[in-house]
Amino acid sequence: MNMEGMLKTGTVLTAQSGSAYRVCAYLGAGTQGEVYEVECGGKHSAVKWYFPQMATRTQREILENLLMKGSPNESFLWPEDLITGGPGGGLGYVMPLRPKEFRGIVDLMKRRAEPSFAMLCRIAFNLTKGYGMLHAKGLSYRDISFGNVSFNPATGAVLIGDNDNVSASGRDDAAVYGTPRFMAPEIVTGREKPSRNTDLYSLAVLLFYMFMLGHPLEGKLEADIRCMDIHALNRLFGTHPVFIFDPNDTSNRPVEGYQDNVLIFWELYPQSLRDLFIQSFTVGLTAPNKRVTEKQWLYEIANMMSCLITCPRCGAEVFFDAEKAARGETHVCWSCRRAVPYPPSLICGGDRALLPLGAKLYSHHLTGNYDMDTVAGEVVANPSDPRLLGIRNLTGDNWTYIRADGRQIPVAPGRSAAIAKDAKINFGARTGEFR
């Protein structure tokens, strides 16, 4: 194939809307077609142009349905226009062009991009929220993997591409069933069709890759395989999957010197996150309706974003572990191996936020709405005594500060409430308690 592919530079494609798109550059190809940069009225977009054998009536109906439903949120490079007027009467669709500052999840896996723990959590949160909104429309993505996701390392924004195979959950009308190593066991064995439940499995695999830099089922059993043929793949990921950290089955533990990433990173995260992965890859392997939901992931990741401690000696990020704190255990920095003190926290509706100077509260903490972008409060120092900290009200609503003795004090927008043990703040939808 030449570098211009099926469409030549300068070719004009007529869309269903009547818009004319001029082909500017060939960007790449996949299993279904080729992607080009196009221009229309000064705006640059991308077009996916299908190989002739993939330009089916069913594919066109899928695209028309996606155009009608609209994008779940801004994280999707969603179809924007349908093109049927092109060379040979082919089929394609217009979608937003991925900005150059975005990097692929593959860059994360190969350590070409190394975001901080705080930024990694934000990326994972935004990714999970996007898939959750897609599932809320009754759709399944079918092919969740690190090949279809990109992120902005500066902001944590994500973009989800290849949306042209998205279809109604459980419906068998697309050519794609998933990517090897990401497909749920029931897809590998052919027992079920793609659905929200199979997406939840693939999402758990993707999150495990992002946090642990390894696959949840690739341990000793994978290391012992001499020929990774179709039979070995079916056994490892379909008929006999074993989680590498299964608490009741140690047969597939990671091999030191070969699968070191997961051995190192598994210990750095709070037990609450590890528990979700254990659920995903033990009971969740055979019981699709018991897999971890998007809201469970969002709740956990929001807490992780809000509970990072910076080691005062070496500056490393250390995750607060509520279970460890409840047992009275000391948090130890993974980098310098010194004890790390943690600041006061605010418990609000089950969510926890640590409160060092400069920490922010988000709308999610006050309402439980999973909005971790809108800042609602900030930890500030008392101008009269910098040792005393408080939370400044950055919303447009009044809060009520409840002292330990029960006295109530209004906290108007722009005012601050002192951080004091056993005191509370009534935010309206929720009441937070200082610990």
What is the strand and helix layout of this fold?
Blueprint: E1 12-15, E2 20-29, E3 33-40, E4 43-50, H1 57-69, E5 81-85, E6 92-95, E7 103-104, H2 105-109, H3 117-136, E8 139-140, E9 149-151, E10 158-160, E11 167-168, H4 185-188, H5 196-212, H6 220-223, H7 230-239, H8 260-266, H9 271-280, H10 283-286, H11 294-306, E12 308-310, E13 317-319, H12 322-326, E14 345-348, E15 351-354, E16 360-362, H13 363-367, E17 375-382, E18 385-393, E19 399-402, E20 408-411, E21 416-418, E22 424-426, E23 431-434
Antiparallel strand pairs: 1-2, 1-5, 2-3, 3-4, 4-6, 5-6, 7-9, 8-11, 9-10, 12-13, 14-15, 14-23, 16-17, 17-18, 18-21, 19-20, 19-22, 22-23
Helix pairs in contact: 3-5, 3-11
Describe this entry's structure for a reader.
It is a single chain. This protein has 3 domains: 12-95, Phosphorylase Kinase, domain 1 (2-Layer Sandwich), CATH 3.30.200.20; 103-297, Orthogonal Bundle (Transferase(Phosphotransferase), domain 1); 343-434, Tumour Suppressor Smad4 (Sandwich). The strands form 6 sheets. A 6-stranded antiparallel β-barrel has the order 1-2-3-4-6-5. A 6-stranded antiparallel β-sheet has the order 15-14-23-22-19-20. A 4-stranded antiparallel β-sheet has the order 16-17-18-21. Helix 3 (117-136) packs antiparallel against helix 5 (196-212). The longest helix is centred in the first third of the chain and has 20 residues, at 117-136. The protein is built from 13 helices and 23 strands. The mean pLDDT is 94. The protein is an alpha+beta fold. The protein has helices spanning 57-69, 105-109, 117-136, 185-188, 196-212, 220-223, 230-239, 260-266, 271-280, 283-286, 294-306, 322-326, 363-367; strands spanning 12-15, 20-29, 33-40, 43-50, 81-85, 92-95, 103-104, 139-140, 149-151, 158-160, 167-168, 308-310, 317-319, 345-348, 351-354, 360-362, 375-382, 385-393, 399-402, 408-411, 416-418, 424-426, 431-434. It is globular and about 80 Å long.
